């Protein structure tokens, strides 16, 4: 299993967190989530960043799913 990031929904916690951080990054107990910068002119929602999950390190705890306001994260099978 692992976590899938829906890039249409993920806005990198725009307007809710300081750039460079997000709820999922802050709450991940194994630090397997990072943020990638986007070009706001071409990214959905004018976002500046989005989450990326290293599923090789993910422990499937689902904490990131619970804290995502955008419901952009889900478990894969």
Largest sheet: 2 strands, antiparallel
Look at the structure and give the mean pLDDT: 94
Shape: globular
Which parts are unreliable, with pLDDT below 50 for 5 consecutive residues or more?
none
Task: Order the strands across the largest sheet as they lie in space.
Answer: 1-4
Task: Describe the fold and architecture.
- This protein is of the alpha+beta class and 77 residues long.
- It has a single domain (2-71), classed as 2-Layer Sandwich (Alpha-Beta Plaits), CATH 3.30.70.
- The protein contains 2 helices and 4 strands; from the N terminus they run βαββαβ.
- The chain has helices spanning 23-27, 63-67; strands at 2-5, 33-37, 49-53, 73-76.
- A two-stranded antiparallel sheet has the order 1-4. Strands 2-3 form a two-stranded antiparallel ribbon.
- The mean pLDDT is 94.
Question: How would you concisely characterize the structure shown here?
Answer:
By secondary structure, the protein is α+β, with helices and mostly antiparallel strands. It is built from two helices and four strands.
Which key terms come to mind for this protein?
globular; 23% strand; alpha+beta; two-stranded antiparallel ribbon; two-stranded antiparallel sheet; Alpha-Beta Plaits; 2 helices; 77 residues; 4 strands
Task: Detail the topology: elements first, then pairings.
Blueprint: E1 2-5, H1 23-27, E2 33-37, E3 49-53, H2 63-67, E4 73-76
